Amino acid sequence: MLKCARKYGVALDVVRPARALREVMPIWYHPGLAEQQDTAKTAAATCLRARHGVTTVGQCVRAAQRLTHPDGTHRANPSCSCLSCVRDRVDLACPNPHRCAMAARKLVDRLHAKWQPVDRDPCDGLTLTRRRREENELAHDENGRIVFNPTLTLAPPLALAFWAFHIRETNNAVARRPPRPFAVTGEEVEVFTDCYAFERDS
User: 79 near 55, Cβ under 8 Å?
Assistant: First the structure.
């Protein structure tokens, strides 16, 4: 199957992944991981897969949450007594929950900015507003006019992100709209005023 995919140029290509898509992406051998040493074969990575059941970016983020939890009960040692670590040792038989949480955080930190699971979806300046999308749904039900949504943001399912006959390299840079050019070219303007304007801050 992989040979066939390579032959016909099947590749993952997303301009702007939505947060939901970034969270369902598989973390192991993620296409957006920075080129560093292979961390999928370490003891912590093996424990994350086998005992914690971590397969996606979202699960990796949840496994690392104890490190930044607001209650501050987590301690950086194998015998940490915070609720999350105790549960991992008892229920999952994890020998070192802190090591696994650190490995999960490192994996997420290695992702390129485009694939980072940030809180909000990226704004591409093209996506229709929520109100416009709701109006489109009503128009669809009534066979009315629908406004085209030119969004570049892709939401799940993950299958929509794959393209066949793909010939260019996958771009991990964050897609941004170029700044809008001004109609008037910038030029220096000299303004004369009296001291009364300075006193009134106008």
Answer: no
Q: Which residue has the tokens 């390579």?
A: 6
Supply the pTM of this predicted model.
Answer: 0.71
- Rounded Cα gap, residues 10 and 130, in angstroms: 33
Phi, psi of 68 (to 5 degrees): -120, 20
Nearest C-alpha neighbor of 176 from the set 143, 144, 153, 146: 153
Low-confidence winner among 110-124, 157-171, 174-188 (lowest mean pLDDT)? 174-188
DSSP 116-163: ---SSPPP-S-SPPHHHHHHHHHHHHTT---------EEPSPGGGGEE
Q: Is the pLDDT of residue 193 over 60?
A: no
Phi, psi of 171 (to 5 degrees): -100, 120
Which residues are registered as beta bridge partners of 162? 12
State the DSSP code for 28.
Answer: T
Locate tokens 């109609």: which residue?
183
Residues in the chain: 202
Cα atoms in the Cβ-side hemisphere of radius 13 Å centred on 69 = 17
